[in-house]
Amino acid sequence: MERTLICETPKKIGEEVKIAGFVQTVRAHGKIAFVDVVDRSGVLQIVGGAELVDLKPQFAVEVEGVVKKRPEKMINEKIKTGTVELESKKVVVLSKSEEMPFDMGAEELNLELPTLLDYRTLTLRHSKIKEIFKVQAKVLEGFREAAKELGCTEISVPTISASATEGGAEVFMVDYYDHKAYMTQSPQLYKQMLVPSLERVFTIAKAYRAEPSVTTRHLSEATQMDCELGFVSFEELLDALEFVGTKTLKYVEENCEKILKDYKVPPLKIPAKVPRLTMREAQKIILKRTGVDHTGEKDLDPEDEKEICKWALEEKDSDLVTITHYPTKKRAFYTAPDPSDPEYSLSYDLLFRGLEILSGSQRINDYNKLIAAIKDRGMDPANFEMYLQAFKYGMPPEGGFSFGLERITMKLLNLSNVREASLFPRDMERVDFRFSR
Amino acid sequence: MERTLICETPKKIGEEVKIAGFVQTVRAHGKIAFVDVVDRSGVLQIVGGAELVDLKPQFAVEVEGVVKKRPEKMINEKIKTGTVELESKKVVVLSKSEEMPFDMGAEELNLELPTLLDYRTLTLRHSKIKEIFKVQAKVLEGFREAAKELGCTEISVPTISASATEGGAEVFMVDYYDHKAYMTQSPQLYKQMLVPSLERVFTIAKAYRAEPSVTTRHLSEATQMDCELGFVSFEELLDALEFVGTKTLKYVEENCEKILKDYKVPPLKIPAKVPRLTMREAQKIILKRTGVDHTGEKDLDPEDEKEICKWALEEKDSDLVTITHYPTKKRAFYTAPDPSDPEYSLSYDLLFRGLEILSGSQRINDYNKLIAAIKDRGMDPANFEMYLQAFKYGMPPEGGFSFGLERITMKLLNLSNVREASLFPRDMERVDFRFSR
User: Fold this and answer.
1) Residues A405-416, buried b or exposed e (16+ Cβ, 10 A)?
2) SS3 category, A341
3) A325 to chain B nearest CA, in Å?
4) According to a count of CB atoms within 10 Å of the terminal CB, is the N or C end of chain B lower?
5) Does residue B357 lie within any of the structural domains?
6) Range of the domain at B229
7) How many domains does chain B have?
8) Is it the case that residue B213 has pLDDT exceeding 90?
């Protein structure tokens, strides 16, 4: 008999079917047992006798039986198959499971983060955890749709690089045959090199950061969603990033309605025009609202980001706010200074519900200015030879931006730690398991 | 004035427009000059006078002017804008370029591979080279469409791992804080761990192989397109991989008609049923056709792959052929042996026009058998603890496959070296530039 997906069973009342999936819960009442089985399409109640009582959570099973309509008062409106159940005739155990180390049957999996990650292959099976990664898949899809609409071509760029790409010490070194090489901190330099070829590009790429600290917002290996556009002005870049950000978020909302409801997150509020502030303007608003004077600071700290997002929501009815003009010295060397005030740069962050989810800038596109900027940061232009080659042969005004996949997922579902939004998070303490074990 | 994309100009005859792009060629005839300008949408001929004569190839420019219909005899049918030209009124040079080190204006860029790669940011601007990566973008898109149709959810898995994933010495070591870690040789183990969660998954991921040799088919950092499916039989896996392979290739053919013509590659030949052979059957056919007796060999060598593809084309009218049942010892430890003859495995390769573009297998899904298989290869199960955890808690029959993005691109365009199908190829001799320089 061919397998029937669980979501199809309500259409097959009275028919004999075979389903396959994982046992979620087993409830035995005397000689009758109820077993919930989950496959990729949903969950189904199986009802039967002796053949079910030995089943345990996480057993992989095949069940043959007849789809029955449930009595009116037994209908479960919470699930898609709540109008039916499967009267089992034959059960085949495909794979047994060890005893559960904690309750996998509860609606919420209330585990401390270390336990959640130590048992990652098990906890990922819980429906609420699975939902995180279904949302993440839609973030990727929504981003790509938006990037394509902007005219970007998808590229696949390398992650092994001959030098520490963006400067700074937070870089992982690789033994590359008999040479030293480095994991790229972002696809940044390579996507820029593609502008003179494909003009508008996007890539979904790994970013490796040897962050020497553990925070709730950083991963040592993260996934970035990047765009880079040639022949654009600063205004056009702002329009482009707000377009991609808005479209990506809305795409998730449209495709994950049930999950967002399960996570009790409010509907998105994104006005037609995302509010824009310079960093200095944001600091002044924060001073006025809270009395906290950060107007002399060179960046927004996490509390500032939360406060200005509160302002955006209260005053502009917006979950998003774009902050521009960060101090030139605080941004990467390739960031273009504002010609009218070079102390500040043509840079931007996009904040979403209290957190930066995107960063980017107009870039320096002049070969000589770029060399000067590299030297100015105490770096050696010889380490950027391939990158500089692209500018030597003509580079139009260009810029781009980069979204953090895990951060967007985290904020969309209101998770408290970015590690919850990564299937197998890497940080200084953990690669699958904690090093200290 | 707003920028007009070059592909829009034939619809704007008589109108004043501004275009932006890169100078491709400059032809001066006395006081009249003809300049071809390229943007992401196409190429356009600009005609004008003194304002054009100082332009050089690869200058980034903005040109304002009036779109004119070309006289009948001047129409160029080779390009989409061949019926029009732009009479220039104003030219702004956005960025100058150095002198070209070779002729970028020719229809073909006939360079030796080292030169092609040493000047990568320049050679990627040539239209024939650009086309390779437009095809590559469509391979990615086609693969994702097919994987989604199979019911797979997209995942993003880590590339830094605590141990050398699949065994073997060909692995890159990373300094990971104060620990040794390794770049994954493939997303294999992680995608398997996701089967009990999302049941069917796909991922586009980097694969790092410290291959100690330089061949035309291998890269040290390659891009893989992977699927993994739970609750499937060997037959269903074969159907699935042939479905994804066929759909991906046909998607490219449908979306890259002009490029495939430029590359003079014949139309795809894929029958409704892709021919399937066991490795032993393939060796017998090769013996019969060529007299070369490889029937005792444990694998097909590159010449065998070419010969059996020739057979598939001549006898089955097919560019694809699936080879199954490679010797168990020749495949990775997680490959399931064929229960009816454990010396051979439930493995498969998909060959396309003479080259393996996909590899995969039914996996061992039994916890104890998997531990035995790891030990059998002289490896320590303790190094696979997170992976084994997934099997400890119930793993259904499952399997999957993996396509090489660069290899498919290479074969689709009949390129002679896989490096031509990678934007910035990495091998033992090169990271952007050759080490020996």
Assistant:
1) bbbbbbbbbebe
2) strand
3) 23
4) C
5) yes
6) 121-434
7) 2
8) no
- Report the alpha-carbon distance of residue B349 to residue B323 in Å, rounded: 5
Nearest Cα of chain B lies from the Cα of A351 at a distance, in angstroms, of: 23
Residues of B in contact with A190 (CB under 8 A): 423-424
A119 Cβ contact partners less than 8 Å away, ≥ 6 residues apart: A101, A102, A111, B389
Are residues B323 and B269 part of one domain? yes
Domain-located, residue B27: yes
Residue positions counted in chain A: 437
Mean pLDDT of B125-150: 98
Alpha-carbon gap, residue B166 to B377, rounded angstroms: 10
Assess whether B136 and B273 both reside in one domain. Answer: yes
> Residue B437's pLDDT is what?
55
Q: Cα A5 to the chain's mean position, in Å?
A: 28
**Amino acid letter for position A63:** V
**Are residues B28 and B146 both part of a single domain?**
no
ipTM for the predicted complex comes to 0.97
The pTM of this model reads 0.97
Q: What is the mean pLDDT of residues B296-319?
A: 97
CATH code of the domain covering residue A137: 3.30.930.10
Residue A40, both tokens: 């990729």
Q: Which residues in B lie closer than 8 A to residue A130 (C-beta atoms)?
A: 197-198
Catalytic annotation on B217? Answer: yes
What is the residue whose two structure tokens read 């998808």?
A154
Query: Could you tell me where the DSSP H helices lie in A124-201?
Result: 127-149, 188-193, 195-198
- Pairing type for strands B320-324 and B276-278 reads parallel
**Amino acid (one-letter) located at A78:** K
At residue B343, what is the residue type? E
Please name the member of A155, A428, A435 whose beta carbon is closest to the beta carbon of B133.
A155
User: One-letter amino acid identity for A378?
Assistant: G
Q: Per-residue pLDDT tens for A295-304?
A: 999 999 999 9
CA dist A420 and A117 (Å) reads 9
Share of chain B above pLDDT 70, in %: 99
CB–CB of B153 and A206 under 8 A? no
Asked if the model's pLDDT at residue B82 lies above 60, the reply is: yes
In Å, how far is A285's CA from the nearest CA of chain B? 35
pLDDT in tens, B333-365: 999 999 999 999 999 999 999 999 999 999 999
Hey, what are B359's tokens? 């590899």
User: Which residues of chain A are modeled with pLDDT < 70?
Assistant: 165-169, 437
The domain spanning residue A47 has which CATH number?
A: 2.40.50.140
Does the beta-carbon distance from B198 to A133 stay under 8 Å?
A: yes
pLDDT score, position B160: 96
